[in-house]
């Protein structure tokens, strides 16, 4: 069957979709968006988390046909999604400077993040693609994950980013308990979660500074 | 496989009548797991995601009509005062991602003995509104579960809503698992005090082939509370009464040994949860009584 839906703001059409296929499979194998990861295929791990009409869901448990006519945001579109959201709140103008500001603040804390962040700046200068996320500046939560060292093997990261970003949208000043609950559906087997907690706290703090 | 995409409830009923083997899918959190793991290859998937009224709820005089597809997240956010037991149970379901998709209709359709909503529905008192092209009927929750993953639905029927009695007293829910999120219950227990009728209702999950009430325990407790004048004097429940109640709840179980726990552990844990939830709800009832008396 054919499925039409919007992914990261762009209308998409997937053909020859098997009726029992998951949204995750369509995203990864038919639309060339491998950011959402396929691990447990039973909703246990959260690594396939995407926004479906704004709501975080496990894309492995959404039948592709159920996405017909709906809007999906994947980790590839997270940066653009976050940028548009901050534009909506009027914080748009300051945003492009916001990230370098916060990174220099990070560097002055003694975090040796100079080189990769410069690269991020270079990437932003290249042509951008909101669909695949290539060339776009990172979203605040993505930057915070890098700065806090919350990424190890990286497999759980896309799902955590989507879940964490949605929580910060709803709850700009989360307690540790709020963060733990919001991320309770995302498993990480490397970090022990402490760095992930640090990253979300950092993203929340930076978000607070901008506003 | 065919993917049926009814745009309305009437279309959904017609599709189910035409294809009784069609598997309804709403949140997909049960059905998609089975498909992903090749445990199930239904001939037809019947997507209920476009039937808007399944996502609505309405609080009436005595009960809440909860659409079959209302996600657990919405129950937690919006129905905590009307349905405290179900709201607590909803919060124990899996993870935020799953709670954003799954709902009580799916729990009832799957009818797993481990479904988190069941003990809360049994304790509160509920009726399941089911419909086919032949007509609509309401199945009392006590008659709904007929076996392991079996329910009282006919092949052409779909679950439309659940009518759950609004709380007239404190309700509690307790679940045993290895962590707070993403666990299938080792066992679970729901308890509701009904001061209006001076009765107590219970629900046990994951400790028998179906979700069950501990009827003997309820009868014992109803009689003990009545004889001791507890509903009026608001005294602390005698430890011996609480113990007897807990023992009778444990005796109502008919559990098995499996990977999540042994039968004897489940019996023990249900007894402990019964005693605790009774204490919690009764303390809350006594507190409310005191407040009301103080105000009067």
From TrEMBL, chain A:
PANTHER family: OXIDOREDUCTASE WITH IRON-SULFUR SUBUNIT (PTHR44379), XANTHINE DEHYDROGENASE IRON-SULFUR-BINDING SUBUNIT XDHC-RELATED (PTHR44379:SF8). InterPro entries: 2Fe-2S-bd, 2Fe-2S-bd_dom_sf, 2Fe-2S_ferredoxin-like_sf, 2Fe-2S_ferredoxin-type, 2Fe2S_fd_BS, Beta-grasp_dom_sf, Diverse_Oxidoreductases. Keywords: 2Fe-2S, Iron, Iron-sulfur, Metal-binding, Oxidoreductase. Coiled coil: none annotated. Residues 1-78 form the 2Fe-2S ferredoxin-type domain. Residues 120-134 have a biased composition (Basic and acidic residues). The keyword Acyltransferase does not apply. The keyword Metal-binding applies. It holds the Pfam family Fer2. One of its GO terms (molecular function) is 2 iron, 2 sulfur cluster binding. Residues 90-136 are annotated as: Disordered. This is Oxidoreductase.
Automatic annotation (TrEMBL), chain B:
The keyword Cell inner membrane does not apply. SMART domains: CO_deh_flav_C. Keywords: FAD, Flavoprotein, Oxidoreductase. Residues 1-169 form the FAD-binding PCMH-type domain. Pfam families: CO_deh_flav_C (PF03450), FAD_binding_5 (PF00941). It comes from the Bacteria. One of its GO terms (molecular function) is FAD binding. The keyword Flavoprotein applies. This is Carbon monoxide dehydrogenase. It comes from Streptomyces phaeoluteigriseus.
